[in-house]
């Protein structure tokens, strides 16, 4: 499984989508609350699970530790 992490432009949320092996339908897996409104995001390559984002109102860059997300079994 491969996850795609995306944000909108106003809510302080990070959306986790499961990318299909075949086909073209993404599946929403989780919504994670964040401390910024997600105008720009980027994973830190030197620190696992750290996502950097911009808080425009404070003109600052913020690092957040994002919890690991796993698919739940439907059984």
Describe the structure.
Strand 1 (about 1-5) and strand 2 (about 15-20) form a beta hairpin. This protein is mainly β. The chain has strands at about 1-5, 15-20, 25-35, 40-45, 50-55, 60-65. Helix content is about 0%, strand content about 45%.
The shape, in one word, is globular
Overall pLDDT level: 89
Q: Which consecutive residue ranges, at least 5 long each, have pLDDT under 50?
A: none
Name the structural class. Answer: mainly beta
Give the C-alpha Rg. 13 Å
Helix-strand sequence: EEEEEE
| Separate helix tally | 0
Write the layout of secondary structure elements.
Blueprint: E1 2-7, E2 13-19, E3 27-33, E4 41-43, E5 50-55, E6 60-65
Antiparallel strand pairs: 1-2, 2-3, 4-5, 5-6
Using brief descriptors, characterize the structure shown.
single chain; 75 residues; mainly beta; 3-stranded antiparallel β-sheet; 47% strand; globular
Summarize the structure.
0% of the residues lie in helices and 47% in strands.
């Amino acid at each position: 499984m491969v996850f795609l992490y995306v944000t909108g432009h106003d809510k302080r949320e990070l959306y986790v989508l499961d990318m299909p092996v075949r086909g073209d339908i993404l599946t929403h897996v989780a919504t994670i609350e964040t401390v910024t409104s997600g105008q720009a995001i980027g994973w830190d390559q030197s620190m696992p699970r750290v996502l950097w984002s911009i808080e425009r109102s404070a003109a600052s860059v913020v690092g957040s530790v994002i919890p690991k997300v796993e698919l739940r079994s439907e059984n």
